Amino acid sequence: MSVKILMVCLGNICRSPLAEGILASKLPKDKFFVDSAGTGNWHVGKKPDERSIATARKNGLDISTQKAKHFTSKDFDTYDYIFVMDNSNYDDVTFLAKNEEQKSKVRLILDELFPGDNVDVPDPYYGLQNGFDMVYEMLDEATDLLAKKLIENHS
Length: 155
Hints:
Layout: E1 3-9, H1 15-26, E2 32-38, H2 50-58, H3 75-78, E3 81-84, H4 87-95, H5 100-103, E4 106-108, H6 129-153
Parallel strand pairs: 1-2, 1-3, 3-4
Helix pairs in contact: 1-2, 1-6, 2-6
């Protein structure tokens, strides 16, 4: 049985697809399943933003086959861990939680780097390509720590 991890951002086309691709590349595929979703439903079925695809490709990852999904309360039953990109997404996701057990699955991804500081992964959508590169670096660092913890806790 594999451990299921969900990455969540607003539209599921910029940050969470990168987070999904980066974390998945660091975990054994036979033990972990990584996916992503968005709290908004505008992009459902679409591939990630071209700038996210380009940033991932530049770093040796292919996220071009991902398709945006909408986060729903059913995801609490499916996933063991839910990592959100910012405080707004945290609020939107935990609002859908039916109990404390579900709410406890939700964490800010940058808490891996800055425990308890509630740091957001900035949304690069309205910016330039370098914003995507910066987001990649933040997520790469956070997922290094996260992957190590997950492997230790589930081996």
